[in-house]
Amino acid sequence: xxxxxxxxxxxxxxxxxxxxxxxxxxxxxxxxxxxxxxxxxxxxxxxxxxxxxxxxxxxxxxxxxxxxxxxxxxxxxxxxxxxxxxxxxxxxxxxxxxxxxxxxxxxxxxxxxxxxxxxxxxxxxxxxxxxxxxxxxxxxxxxxxxxxxxxxxxxxxxxxxxxxxxxxxxxxxxxxxxxxxxxxxxxxxxxxxxxxxxxxxxxxxxxxxxxxxxxxxxxxxxxxxxxxxxxxxxxxxxxxxxxxxxxxxxxxxxxxxxxxxxxxxxxxxxxxxxxxxxxxxxxxxxxxxxxxxxxxxxxxxxxxxxxxxxxxxxxxxxxxxxxxxxxxxxxxxxxxxxxxxxxxxx
Length: 346
Prior knowledge:
This protein folds into 2 domains: 1-104 and 326-346, P-loop containing nucleotide triphosphate hydrolases (Rossmann fold); 113-285, Up-down Bundle (Glutathione S-transferase Yfyf (Class Pi), Chain A, domain 2). It is 42% helix and 18% strand.
């Protein structure tokens, strides 16, 4: 209710494959945005949740979400009013962390290519989303690391005495070492699932993923930090650590941005998302919701058919949007036409 141009309605999606189609600005992306907010408390389209409210409304909006594969079967109720988002389940107010655990969802929005085109931060978030779900202590280590890093960098910027800066080293090292171990293990498992996925497409020459830890690979984190600290006076922030880590996306030895076509890049990214969702299931036993906006765009009909075949094998719930209805029948799919914010099952 009151969410962008979406009509007030109740939607019952299949626990399997759902295909949405409709013209531009019909509401397809808004639905995926709603799922993104229900899962993370954030939108892939805007940092300001107030912008989501209908232009002709009262500035408020509401979402109720139930998901068969979620951790917990209770209705998740989101209310945006008074400039703040509140999420409740069984009358309990949920934090963003609790929301994410209630609705594990991997949403690939219209900014999908940012995973390749932007800096390492978005790729770290991609890895850490999975680690949040498969390593239940990860969130605590991540918070400890971020707190130590913020305090240490603040001390560096104000040119505090060295003992005040180095006082944060132990916390930084202990939490950072655990984060790095978890990321390495995740990428090792992800590499196996990714290779299995791309091997059947035949469209990605020598596709590969690697983890860069954020400091010289021949050094431990402690040794790298000690080496950097010898030049602390010339620094404005901590130059080494998992906050500088990255997930390398490669075709052969080159970055995918410089080697693959735009369509091949999209195949790479969808394959990577499938691999990550399968890895989460392997580790914890439940299937994340997988939603992809405009999944057919930039793909030839043959390539799209191949990718749809891969997506059909995923056993979790899938919601795929596109401009046009599928040209061939997909027997197991539930099909929805979207027009002026209203969804009609076909």
